TrEMBL record:
PANTHER family: MOLYBDENUM COFACTOR BIOSYNTHESIS PROTEIN B. Coiled coil: none annotated. The keyword Acyltransferase does not apply. SUPFAM superfamilies: Molybdenum cofactor biosynthesis proteins. GO terms for biological process: Mo-molybdopterin cofactor biosynthetic process. Pfam families: MoCF_biosynth. This is Molybdenum cofactor biosynthesis protein B. May be involved in the biosynthesis of molybdopterin. Keywords: Molybdenum cofactor biosynthesis. Pathway: Cofactor biosynthesis; molybdopterin biosynthesis.
């Protein structure tokens, strides 16, 4: 199908909040990501809250990368230079191909909004096993910026001149789930 005739394809998206203090009751950034995704007709596949521990983050993401139904993984939190922040280290080793432009553009957009503090963002993205992985700050404003300006346009097959959708579709990926799975290492949201 040519891009001129492209139609919207809803994707299966997992949302992971990296935090030692958030729960499903107070995860405002996870809620924001979920609302933005479903507002664009994508489907929430799973939602997790994982502690700021490198191997917990990596294990959760690796499991989703291996799941043929999961097409996109959005992480929020743990991307700054704080002592416990390790999201970038946890996920970047899993990339088959980094999407270098995401971090560069996110920092450029952040600089416009907040000045030199943008230097401390280690937002990153990459592709692994036909899955797009994006790690962004846990701030709702930063997540909103990333979603609206960068991520959602690239998750739309109609986006010209290019988008990620064709790289995320696999033959066995015809979602039949009627409700998303949600779980957490600390709590479960029904």
């Amino acid at each position: 199908m040519s891009k001129a005739n492209a139609v919207f394809i809803p994707l299966q998206v997992a949302v992971i909040t990296v935090s030692d203090s958030r729960t499903f009751d107070n995860d405002s950034t996870g809620d924001l990501l979920q609302q933005r995704l479903t507002g664009q007709q994508h489907q929430l596949y799973q939602r997790h809250i994982v502690p700021q521990q490198l191997h917990h983050i990596r294990a959760c993401v690796a499991t989703l990368i291996a799941d043929p139904l999961c097409q996109v993984i959005l992480l929020n939190g743990g991307t700054g230079f704080g002592q416990d922040n390790c999201t970038e280290q946890a996920v970047s080793v899993l990339f088959d191909q980094p999407v270098v432009g995401f971090g560069e553009l996110f920092r450029q957009l952040s600089f416009t909004a907040m000045g030199s503090a943008a230097l401390q963002s280690r937002a990153t993205a990459g592709l692994a096993n036909h899955t797009l992985i994006v790690a962004m700050p846990g701030s709702p404003n930063a997540a909103e910026l990333a979603m609206v300006q960068l991520i959602l346009p690239q998750l739309d097959a109609r986006q010209q001149p290019c988008n990620f959708v064709s790289q995320l579709i696999h033959a066995q990926c015809s979602p039949t789930r009627t409700s998303p799975q949600q779980d957490s290492h600390q709590s479960t949201k029904s």
